[in-house]
Amino acid sequence: MADKSFLSWPFFEDRHRQLAERLEAWCAKNLPVDHHDVDAACRELVQKLGRDGWLKATAFDTDNPGPLDVRTLCITRETLARHDGLADFAFAMQGLGTGALSLFGTPEQQQWLSKTRAGKAISAFALSEPRSGSDVANTEMTATRDGDSYVLSGEKTWISNGGIADLYVVFARTGEAPGAKGLSAFLVPGDAKGLGIAERLEVIAPHPLARLSFDQVRLPASALIGRPGDGFRIAMSVLDVFRSTVGAAALGFARRALDESIKRVAERKLFGAPMAELQMVQGHIADMALDVDAAALLVYRAAWTKDMGAARVTREAAMAKLFATDKAQEVIDKAVQLHGGDGVRKGHIVESLYREIRALRIYEGASDVQKVVIARQVMGAA
Ligand SMILES: Cc1cc2nc3c(=O)[nH]c(=O)nc-3n(C[C@H](O)[C@H](O)[C@H](O)COP(=O)(O)OP(=O)(O)OC[C@H]3O[C@@H](n4cnc5c(N)ncnc54)[C@H](O)[C@@H]3O)c2cc1C
């Protein structure tokens, strides 16, 4: 049984505690799903999460306007990740994919949100390219104005939900200025003419992922999100909301690894006694618990700060993502070690956690990038 004592921290309100309890019961009943066909699994997860109301938190509610509640996003991601990494992925992408619409969309563009919040449309966020991942300023895809249209040409890669998404938020160069200041964001329907799947990408923790080709994709001018040249600012504002939630997912994986390890060392006998009686084992468990609690403090500090109305939480979110993902990797590695041979057996829960955690230290800003962000923030403030 996962430790829930963090829910008594002052970062939360009673509605968050109730949400955690209800979601726990939902997860016990509905997760994990069969992962053999990841496209089908993701569609099923989005449909079920939408049907039962969990996706409402992922996007702006046009009937009841208000900011996204980052603590709700984080508690949900942590809980889903503890039960099923793919369920966390399905939930997270509905938010990341529509973040630009929630924050900057026109009322017409925001009509998509009632569908994504109900699990009736799947969304994706398309920023990375073959030659620009960390270096967003180097984006090469172009969006050329042609009368009342924009024409998009180029490639995007590593796009989660690529191939199954109903809508993509795509960042392309419109050229108002060199580098990051010459990018704009566009809403692209999944069935737009000229948008194709160039390649499906397989990774160690499978989920729908693709390289996309844009061959003269013509969009009405109303597909522009925000103003021309605002693309980088929009992408960074979206990441400002969702980056700490990546830390929350890592926290969920780490908590599961800790739980599995506590169970394992209590049950497994070594040298005539439970493993749990060996002091070196206790040392590992203590290190894991410490890292989990420290990560939780940073994640929920970032979420609370944003929910309290901070315009930007760049430093807090970067610290939360960096620490929670790096430490989750260490916690899970210790869990594998404590499980001995079973820890590397295909299909064992700690083996799958070992694969699940790795990409979180790369996407939405690699760990090294988070260090650069933190250093700039603290040196700039000094
Ligand atoms: C599973 C997965 C899902 C993804 N989903 C999406 C998605 O939905 N949408 C999307 O747009 N992108 C997505 N990405 C892409 C992801 O954001 C990029 O992979 C990431 O930004 C790194 O870019 P890159 O792979 O081009 O690596 P590079 O930019 O080539 O960087 C390689 C490494 O260099 C190091 N590095 C980078 N910058 C610095 C620095 N300033 N100082 C020191 N070291 C540095 C880091 O260790 C980094 O990992 C996904 C990636 C993965 C693996």
TrEMBL record:
Protein name in UniProt: Acyl-CoA dehydrogenase family protein
Keywords, alphabetical: FAD, Flavoprotein, Oxidoreductase
InterPro entries in the cross-refs: Acyl-CoA_Oxase/DH_mid-dom, Acyl-CoA_Oxase/DH_mid-dom_sf, AcylCo_DH-like_C, AcylCo_DH/oxidase_C, AcylCoA_DH/ox_N, AcylCoA_DH/ox_N_sf, AcylCoA_DH/oxidase_NM_dom_sf
Limits of the Acyl-CoA dehydrogenase/oxidase N-terminal domain: 14-119
Naturally occurring in which organism (per UniProt): Mesorhizobium qingshengii
Reported cofactor(s): FAD
One Pfam family hit: Acyl-CoA_dh_N
Family: Belongs to the acyl-CoA dehydrogenase family.
Domain of life, per lineage: Bacteria
PANTHER family assigned: ACYL-COA DEHYDROGENASE, BLR3437 PROTEIN
Domain Acyl-CoA oxidase/dehydrogenase middle: 124-217
Domain annotation Acyl-CoA dehydrogenase/oxidase C-terminal: ranges: 229-378
